[in-house]
Model the fold of this input.
Amino acid sequence: MHPQNISQGLGELVDPLKFNHPLNLCGLTREKTFSLLKNMLTIRIIEEKISHLIVRGVVKTPCHLGTGQEAIAVGISENLTKHDYAFGTHRSHSHYLAMGGGVYELIAEVLGKKEGASKGMGGSMHLYGGEVGFMGSVPIVGATIPIAVGAAMAAKMDNNQAIAVCFFGDGAAEEGVLHESLNLASAYNLPVLFVCENNLYSSHLDINLRQPCDRVARFAQAHCIEAVTIDGNDVVGVRDASLNLIKKMRSECRPGFIEAVTYRWCGHVGPDENIDVGVRRSKSELDAWKQRDPIKRLRQAMMLEESLTESSYLQLVDNINGMVDEAIIKAEKAPYPKNEALYDLVYEA
Ligand SMILES: Cc1ncc(C[n+]2csc(CCOP(=O)(O)OP(=O)(O)O)c2C)c(N)n1
Done:
């Protein structure tokens, strides 16, 4: 793990040319590394195919793609169960899928179909998979953070060993609610894991133009919460860091904070790369970060230790492509919800 000095900036963790080497597999079994690879690839391929559907004009909901950030959701959800409570953001295809949400249900939701994860009424930014512990995503920046704190309080009162997890971006550090939530979680000893996917941008604005320091974990330290900052493009490192922290959180009933440094390959919304509108986001920066691809780094490491061959990798890609294509064909043919169903899911006090 990267040496921690939380009061300082991210340093070389934001240098895309560092950390682009094959991963250290830390003695994980072939089954484990293969499943990490499969889970990340599934998310990558689904989002690529959603991009094609957007370009074809079939998708009407705005889609915030997380291509390049897959290792965080996959590494952390390794240590969660369906009895935990995970919450997402506007960019949560990865969180929903990594928790075990259905591929067909995600695609149907993105297409606004009745069989979608949120019955076709939420779209890409309002996903729900309560049966697998994914309690919902919301596009209001920071909005699910206090809800996760509430879920952690409920878990503590029920004494059921569950933890709550909220995934959010670095932009949420500019919302007061993150700071209030950190305070409450720490003061009340609540088992909530704050996961900041620091991809260095909020919409189109570089973190160095928004913050005096690019390390978001410093806010956790200010609230006496144990925090680590890690390479978010290392799925094994994310898995290990969260394993240790979550174990401790469950036994000590305390909050934890993981800042995972990463980069999104697409622009803020949709498949466009946004290299023309981004402040400081350049083609060369994007290309450099693509060398730090979490999937490539795991694949290379597996090939080096000969637990994966080129042909078994291509076979895996083929299988996932087939499975996602099938889901898309089915979802395109599926019915939309009826107009009369519009109020069925509205909460009335
Ligand atoms: C309260 C609020 N303010 C502004 C927005 C507009 N908005 C949507 S996403 C976004 C950027 C969020 O950046 P970050 O949290 O870093 O996540 P990322 O998009 O990088 O994944 C903004 C400003 C919003 N949805 N909610």
About this structure: Residues 30-56 form the longest helix (27 residues). The beta strands are 85-88, 134-137, 164-169, 192-198, 201-202, 205-206, 226-231, 256-261. Residues 90-91, 139-141, 168-172, 199, 201-203, 268 surround thiamine diphosphate (CB under 6 Å). The chain has a mean pLDDT of 95.
